Amino acid sequence: MSVLEGSFTIHRFPPNYEIPIRLFEGLFCNITRSEDEVSVICSSAVELDSLSADPGWSCIKVIGPLDLTLTGLLADILNVLAKVEISIISISTFDTDYIFVKSTKIHAAIDALLQAEYIFKQ
Prior knowledge:
Number of domains: 1
Number of helices: 2
Number of strands: 7
Distance between the termini: 9 Å
Shape: globular
CATH class: Alpha Beta
């Protein structure tokens, strides 16, 4: 695992929101569109005029690529964090998983994962 640099913000937009190209300037950006909304997770350095925003998130990356048939890894990670009462937002991609925790909880999350024998790359 590794921790991505910087702080991230979760934004909510209306479903017809047009994605600005500047979203792709950071190390990570996730855009999810449904019939109800567009949710964006991106670097807090990218300023967006969203309907609502929740800043102050840190990102733990599961170093991949992971086989798409692998089962239970994300569930185990989330269970470790749930046991120490750390709320998360998870994003899965083709290659790996990203786990977002509030920045105030990142050290507790790392400690819990280390105790569960997960390894962090410096």
